[in-house]
Write a structure and sequence with these properties.
This protein has 136 residues and is an alpha+beta fold. It has a single domain, classed as Beta-Lactamase, CATH 3.30.450. The chain contains 5 helices and 5 strands. Strands 2-1-5-4-3 form a 5-stranded antiparallel sheet, sandwiched between helices. A hairpin with a 4-residue loop joins strand 3 and strand 4. It is globular, with a radius of gyration of 14 Å. The two termini are 23 Å apart.
Length: 136
């Protein structure tokens, strides 16, 4: 299994944080731990409890990496987005690792435009991140 170093992930997360409306961009590993990235400078989390944030990381990881029989008929999962009153949450699974990219953004953000930006940012790496997004 290929694993990128945190030093490679951090600049990519920071680049995503510069996308207008992005509040948070981080890589979450198989244990539900943030290994790179975090909140955009100057942004305060809505949920201040670290234990709750860690539980949410684990939940996002489980949902994003779950594989099922729909992959054969509908294709691989590219990303999952949920829209809440105050925030949009988007997770991008890395197909050849057990990491995800988790993004929190303002409700007015264009999710498709952000997804294209994520593909551009990660397309020059060998992590396999863009395998499903770029090949569709």
């Amino acid at each position: 299994m290929y694993v990128m170093s945190d030093s490679v992930y951090d600049p990519r997360c920071k680049e995503i944080q510069h996308h207008e409306g992005v509040r948070f961009a981080a890589i979450i590993n198989h244990a539900g731990e943030k290994i790179a990235g975090g909140f955009t400078e100057g942004v305060n989390p809505y949920e201040g409890d670290e234990a709750k944030l860690h539980d949410f990381y684990k939940f996002a990881l489980n949902v994003s990496l779950r594989t099922d029989e729909l992959n054969n008929s509908l294709g691989a999962l590219n990303y999952i987005a949920s829209r809440r009153d105050k925030v949009i949450l988007i997770s991008f699974p890395f197909p050849v690792t057990t990491n995800i990219l988790l993004i929190s953004a303002e409700p007015g953000l264009d999710i498709e435009k952000l997804a294209q930006n994520v593909v551009k940012i990660f397309s020059d790496d060998s992590s396999g991140f863009t395998k499903t997004l770029a090949d569709d």
